[in-house]
Amino acid sequence: MQTTEFSLVAPDASEVFLTGNFNEWNPAEHAMRKFQGGKFVKKLKLNPGKYEYQFIVDGQWWTDPANPNRETNSFGSENSIVEVGEEVVAYK
Known about the structure:
The protein has no helices and ten strands.
């Protein structure tokens, strides 16, 4: 398993959650911690593989604006994609 850090800068947000196929899209399981400057961070231990995810920002679903790698989901919108390797994490 690799520690994978997800982050989002959203200074006006009061709460942000991380959700994806790594937690069966549970919208309330992974609350992100807010740091100075409005940066929200969550670290997860993930097995190697390809994961789809989104942020839930004050109840609104967002793709990751810092990650250009996306795939269309079954609802016709997009999910952000992260690939976790054996030793490194890369957006792909």
